[in-house]
Design brief:
Layout: H1 2-15, H2 22-26, H3 30-47, H4 56-69, H5 89-135, H6 138-150, H7 162-180, H8 189-198, H9 205-227, H10 235-250, H11 260-269, H12 271-276, H13 290-306, H14 313-328, H15 333-354, H16 368-385, H17 410-419, E1 424-427, H18 432-439, H19 456-466, H20 472-478, E2 481-486, H21 492-500, E3 504-509, E4 514-518
Parallel strand pairs: 1-2
Antiparallel strand pairs: 2-4, 3-4
Helix pairs in contact: 3-5, 3-6, 3-16, 4-5, 4-18, 5-6, 5-7, 5-15, 6-15, 7-8, 7-9, 8-10, 9-10, 9-14, 13-15, 14-15, 17-18, 19-20
């Protein structure tokens, strides 16, 4: 049967404009397919994901506003509780906001998910290539890749931060590449990358941290060489220092210049953000990612200690800096996975070299290359059918057929725009992002996921009303609220009180929200 299939393959191959040699087929190994399979899972997972309502939509609205007005907003225009107040995040995210809105206007939510899958898959593809170039072992590469993925999958939702993962991976790869082959053209990657990063997301200091560790490692190597009396060149130290300086200077090319530092300080010192937003809190044993992160720190420590290859300054500095970042905020956990994967692969490869190996096979099993090619073709096919445009062809629950999550109040806001009730709207905080996108300028929100924008007094009022604390209806009157868009899961007591109250009438309900209007 195999000989028949091989004969058919050779006949078919002869008719193709590009022939695939047996030697090229043999390069496709089972362990290589492990890595390809893992990357295919990433691509498929993101493609078949959904856009949640929290952050994505207000970023889209800002991108729309920038392109329509030709300028970046300086103050809040989307809420009535903080209207006219300065909001630094508009200048921080402007480039990615425009990017997201442009792609959405070209192809809707499906195209956004596809672009997201390319960005996320590209990030881990670069990490995989880096791991393989250091080890030449596909099995070790697959393990390190899984290490990075399990610490990052929680952060793959569609938001501006996704681009920072890709830029960070490019930085890691370029640093490694330049140190092996000192091509000056590679150095252009860093200032260009920082220029994009500083105008897209507030995590841009991580790029400078990576460059700083590179400089520290070169300086350490040169210092040790001088201490030992060895001849050494200062060129590598000077190059790393110059790259760090130029990249830091490029960070000033943003709408606020040096004032961008104020954004970082305000986010780091804002008690509402630091104490209430789960992703800003430190990971703990009870948090979803906490136990896994702690286990990965322990694993990394053991590997660095056991490895016969002595850990370098670069590896130790990276481990300490990004462990500290992950312990400080859950947002840093994904970065620990990305930067430690190549280091883990390098040291695991050294450990693997010490272990007894099975004798190499003296002959290739007949048809193995064709089987591997078939498996590779199957993975490509699975990746293609996972594209967002084909999700209706795949057996899925009805809630997952849409590229937008079920808890997005699409129908309720459409109804609101149809009936156009007078007065202001009190909304669930999570619904605020979609309201900004779909209801502005007709309606402004009470609050939304831009948590750092709203002061404590606004959040106190929001919580008091949402819990239907005594005087909740009077507070709504003080704000001029005539319509409620409520979340039955997050605001059950308020839904119950509004339903029982003669002052409010339920006029619409969809799977995500309930709409009440004043009956008087």
């Amino acid at each position: 049967m195999i000989s028949t299939f091989r004969s058919y393959f050779n006949t078919t191959q002869a008719a193709l404009p590009v022939k695939i040699s047996n030697r090229e087929l043999q390069k496709i190994t089972p362990r290589m397919l492990w890595v390809v399979g893992i990357l295919t899972v990433i691509f498929t997972y993101v493609n078949m994901g959904q856009i949640s309502p929290n952050d994505f939509w207000w970023h889209m609205a800002v991108g729309r506003e920038i392109l329509a007005s030709g300028q970046i907003p300086m103050v809040d225009i989307y809420s009535y509780t903080m209207a006219g107040q300065p909001y630094l995040s508009y200048q921080m995210f402007w480039l990615m906001d425009v990017w997201l809105y442009w792609w959405y206007s070209m192809g809707g939510a499906e195209l956004i998910l596809f672009i997201q899958s390319l960005v996320i898959t590209g990030t881990y593809l670069i990490i995989a290539l880096l791991c393989y170039q250091q080890t030449k072992k596909w099995g070790v590469t697959a393990f390190a890749l899984i290490f990075a993925i399990v610490l990052g999958v929680y952060a793959w939702n569609v938001r501006p931060q996704a681009i920072s993962f890709l830029i960070g991976a490019v930085f890691l790869y370029t640093i490694h590449r330049y140190r092996r082959h000192a091509n000056p053209l590679l150095l252009v990657v860093f200032p260009v990358g920082m220029l994009v990063w500083v105008n897209s997301h507030g995590s841009f200091p991580i790029g400078l941290l990576l460059l700083g560790i590179w400089f520290g490692d070169e300086f350490w190597r040169a210092s040790i060489a001088r201490w030992r009396g060895e001849q050494t060149s200062q060129n590598k130290v000077m190059v790393a220092a110059l790259v760090l300086f130029v990249s830091a200077t490029v960070c000033l090319l943003n709408p606020r210049g040096v004032g961008m530092i104020n954004y970082l300080i305000s986010m780091g010192s804002n008690p509402t953000v630091q104490n209430t937003v789960p992703e800003w809190l430190p990971p703990s044993i009870t948090s979803p990612i906490g136990p896994l992160f702690f286990a990965c720190i322990l694993l990394s420590t053991v590997v660095l200690v056991v490895s016969p290859r002595k850990a370098t300054f670069y590896q130790l500095a990276t481990f300490v800096a990004f462990s500290a970042l992950g312990l400080w905020t859950t947002r840093g956990v994904v970065w620990f996975g990305l930067v430690m994967a190549p280091i883990l692969a390098d040291n695991l490869s050294s450990i693997r070299d010490l272990l007894p190996l099975r004798p190499p096979r003296t002959r290739t099993l007949p048809g193995r290359s064709l089987v591997n090619l078939g498996l590779l073709s199957l993975l490509v096919f699975l990746a293609l059918i996972s594209l967002p445009w084909f999700r209706n062809m795949i057996p899925m629950r009805g809630d997952y057929r849409s590229p937008i999550t079920r808890d997005t109040p699409v129908e309720s806001i459409n109804y609101l725009m149809e009936i156009q009730p007078e007065g202001r709207v009190f909304n669930d905080m999570a619904f605020g992002s979609y309201m900004i996108w779909a209801a502005y300028p007709d309606y402004q929100v009470f609050t939304d996921p831009r948590i750092e924008l709203f002061p404590e007094r606004v959040w106190d009022d929001y919580q008091s009303i949402s819990r239907s604390a005594p005087g909740w209806d009077q507070k709504l009157e003080q704000y001029g609220v005539r319509t409620l868009v409520l979340n039955p899961d997050a605001q059950p007591t308020l839904v119950e009180m509004a339903t029982k109250s003669s002052a409010w009438q339920l006029v619409f309900q969809d799977p995500a929200a309930l709409v009440f209007t004043r009956s008087d």
